[in-house]
């Protein structure tokens, strides 16, 4: 029997396109991948911020892109491949939606859920997947939400859209596993980013409470007793994108301090 080798630099040299990496969880993922030797495409709507993040990473490049704009996936993948070469690691990440209820869900909300959480992601995947399969290596990781496992009250658009994304990616994972392409989801829950701060502020305003009180109540529901740090999420995401995670596919891994109460 041959002894399996564990790569010491498990993403070294790989080209990683990390969507929404000008801040928050995407930036933390880009940083963790770069720390392990990946060549990273940093992207978001704020091109200057993308340049700032990329400048602090070895062999990284910046591309400005609004993922919700028509044709965005084509332009983004074309730019990434022109600058660094074929995309080997694709991290799907982007804008979370505004709060919404299921009782008040409209046709426009259905369009928004799909347009925000499924359409750009599928378009990106479709553009990099053939190359990944041909080369016999690929990593697709979606930064989704703990709401995939336990729908979050008041975030109906996210719950609906990400359920669709999860169904798409789970189906895809089985179709491409034999080609060396893994497809997974990472499910963050209450990780201290700008988005979480704005959700807390919005809830405080709607309920007439102090933000500190909202945060304290929110923290009390987390077994770890605190919000997560973006770099804790980045470490998990980078592992799922690495050569070392070659037998991990079709799964969703939470990073939520124990927030979701089910297994
Ligand atoms: N933090 C958590 O605990 C948590 C929990 C559950 C789910 N999530 C989800 O995880 C994802 C990342 O969350 P986060 O907390 O890191 O949010 P964040 O701090 O607001 O960061 C969002 C990132 O996405 C980029 N972005 C936003 N709109 C975009 C657009 N239209 N096109 C391209 N890029 C866009 C932003 O960059 P630009 O401003 O430069 O475009 C930024 O880099 C979101 O979908 C969020 O809903 C987060």
Structure description:
- The protein has helices at residues 24-35, 47-55, 72-84, 107-117, 119-135, 156-176, 194-207, 211-220, 230-240, and strands at 15-18, 39-44, 61-64, 89-92, 138-143, 181-188, 252-255.
- The chain is of the alpha/beta class and 263 residues long.
- It has one domain (15-255): NAD(P)-binding Rossmann-like Domain (Rossmann fold).
- Bound molecules: NADP nicotinamide-adenine-dinucleotide phosphate.
- NADP nicotinamide-adenine-dinucleotide phosphate (NAP) binds next to helix 1 and helix 7.
The number of strands is 7
- As for the CATH topology, it is Rossmann fold
Ends distance = 35 Å
Question: Given this structure, which CATH class is correct?
Answer: Alpha Beta
Shape verdict: globular
Which ligands accompany this protein?
NADP nicotinamide-adenine-dinucleotide phosphate
The CATH superfamily appears as NAD(P)-binding Rossmann-like Domain
The CATH architecture can be given as 3-Layer(aba) Sandwich
> Helicity range of the residues?
40-55%
How many helix segments? 9
Q: What is the average of the pLDDT values?
A: 95
Fraction of residues in β-strands: 5-15%
Secondary-structure-based class equals alpha/beta
Largest sheet: 7 strands, parallel
Question: How many whole angstroms does the radius of gyration measure?
Answer: 18 Å
Elements, N to C (H/E): EHEHEHEHHEHEHHHE
Strand order of the largest sheet: 3-2-1-4-5-6-7
Total individual domains = 1
């Amino acid at each position: 029997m041959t002894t399996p080798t564990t790569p010491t630099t498990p993403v070294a040299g790989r080209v990683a396109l990390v969507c929404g990496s000008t801040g928050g969880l995407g930036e933390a993922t880009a940083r963790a991948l770069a720390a392990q030797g990946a060549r990273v495409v940093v992207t978001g709507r704020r091109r200057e911020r993308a340049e700032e993040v990329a400048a602090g990473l070895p062999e990284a490049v910046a591309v400005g892109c609004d993922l919700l704009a028509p044709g965005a996936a084509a332009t983004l993948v074309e730019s990434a491949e022109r600058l660094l070469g074929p995309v080997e690691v694709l991290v799907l990440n982007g804008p979370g939606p505004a709060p919404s209820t299921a009782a008040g869900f409209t046709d426009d909300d259905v369009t928004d859920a799909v347009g925000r959480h499924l359409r750009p992601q599928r378009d990106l995947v479709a553009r990099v997947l053939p190359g990944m399969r041909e080369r016999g290596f690929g990593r697709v990781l979606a930064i989704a939400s703990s709401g995939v496992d336990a729908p979050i009250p008041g975030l109906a658009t996210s719950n609906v859209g990400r359920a669709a994304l999860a169904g798409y990616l789970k189906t895809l994972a089985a179709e491409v596993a034999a080609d060396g392409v893994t497809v997974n989801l990472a499910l963050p829950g209450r990780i201290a980013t700008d988005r979480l701060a704005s959700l807390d502020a919005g809830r405080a305003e709607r309920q007439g409470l102090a933000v500190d009180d909202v945060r304290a109540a929110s923290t009390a529901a987390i077994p770890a007793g605190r919000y997560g740090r973006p770099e804790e999420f980045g470490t998990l995401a980078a592992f799922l994108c690495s050569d070392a995670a070659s037998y991990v596919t079709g799964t969703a891994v939470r990073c939520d301090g124990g927030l979701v109460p089910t297994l």
